[in-house]
Amino acid sequence: MTDNVLQEFPEYNDNYRAGFVSFVGRPNAGKSTLTNALVGEKVAITSSKPQTTRHTIRGIVHRPQTDDAPGSQLVLVDTPGLHRPRTLLGSRLNDLVIDTLSEVDVVGFCIPADEKIGPGDRFIAGQLNKLPHKPVVALVTKTDKVPRADLAEQLIAVDQLGREHLSSEGRQADGFASIIPVSAVRGDQTNVVTDELITMMPTSPPLYPSGELTDEPERVMIAELIREAALEDVRDELPHSIAVTVEEMLPREGRAADKPLLDIHATIHVERDSQKAIIIGHRGSRLKQIGSGAREGIKKLLGTPIYLDLHVKVTKEWQRDPKKLNRLGF
Ligand SMILES: Nc1nc2c(ncn2[C@@H]2O[C@H](COP(=O)(O)OP(=O)(O)OP(=O)(O)O)[C@@H](O)[C@H]2O)c(=O)[nH]1
Fold it and tell me: N or C terminus of the chain with fewer C-beta within 10 Å?
């Protein structure tokens, strides 16, 4: 930690709490939406399609010191969905998730209130059981989608899941450290989630300056925004096949200082010619749509006008080829 960080926190004292929390859960469980709700600004990318969060994206919750509580900082590490691997990419993602989890202070296991607990959840619980010293909080998400009676039943089922699957030797107590129902969309109980997570953080000096919401490199955020735009309205098989790389970001030469323009060159990678055709669309109409969709988000992120140059490339079988995976940054 730099001295700069401490200068920003004159009230910092020995009771200050700060640490890392990571949300896991099967695809679509509501991890990104919850991250955004806790941080209060859009940092992670959400989509109604599963498995869009491939990169570790952090958001930071700052709580200033009050008469009742010391100041605190919660660093949210948003991981890809932990899921049963079917491809090499799948198993790489799982390794990445386990690595991330071994370094955080608390794991938040997101389980939707409106879906029955299934093999995917039991798989995740089994993986978490491999980290016996890691406290796990169950977050029962999307509570606005179910009647109270169904929620009560789900809470009991979640408790059961914890008792059955989080019981390795060395675990302080069997099961979840706590179970919290929450609706990120309505903002119900989001404060309770923050409070509970903060009490579980170690005493520590602040980890990040207060203005910082995310330390994800801009390039990765930009690639994610393009990927999100490309995933709008496409068929179900496509999401797994798309990756985006940002090739170049350069300020346009010869522009007046008060009228800057940033040129961004990016590539959308697909696996097959047929998918390339879908992405490009009739006479390039879909690609144009993707470009304008992504441009808005990128402009907002960078706070400057941009020119987005998009290419589509067939990178065959990239999900299964280790060399290609490395080149795409996985
Ligand atoms: N009604 C309701 N919908 C929610 C809530 N939280 C998330 N959703 C919806 O559930 C879907 C999935 O949410 P995400 O936050 O993208 O889920 P995720 O777990 O990050 O998904 P992956 O990135 O695929 O792992 C989206 O359509 C959200 O709008 C909630 O509290 N209430």
Answer: N
pLDDT of residue 319: 57
Q: What is the position in ligand 1's atom list of the atom closest to the CA of 35?
A: 15
Bridge partners, 180 (sequence order): 139
Q: What does the alpha-carbon distance between residue 163 and residue 205 come to, in Å, rounded to a whole number?
A: 34
Give nearest CA residue, ligand 1 atom 26.
48
CA distance 250 to 261: 9
Residue 213 lies in a domain: no
Q: What is the CATH number of the domain that holds 72?
A: 3.40.50.300
Mean pLDDT of the chain: 80
Distance 44 CA to ligand 1 centre (A): 11
Inside any domain, residue 227: yes
Would the pTM of this model clear 0.80, i.e. be above it? Answer: no
The annotation status of 245 as a binding-site residue, yes or no, is no
Same domain, 121 and 14: yes
Query: For 39-56, what is each residue's pLDDT tens digit?
Result: 875 444 443 333 333 335
Q: How do 243-251 and 262-270 pair as beta strands?
A: antiparallel
Residue 313 among known ligand-binding residues: no
Is 157 in the same domain as 236? no
Domain range for 288: 218-327
What pLDDT, on the 0 to 100 scale, is given for residue 42?
46
Structural domain contains residue 207:
no
How far is residue 39's CA from residue 41's CA, in Å, rounded to a whole number?
A: 6
Closest CA to 17 of 160, 212, 150, 198: 198
Q: ipTM higher than 0.90?
A: yes
Instruction: Say if residue 330's pLDDT is above 70.
Output: no
Which residues surround ligand 1 with Cβ inside 6 Å?
Answer: 25, 27-33, 46-48, 50-53, 81, 141-142, 144-145, 183-185
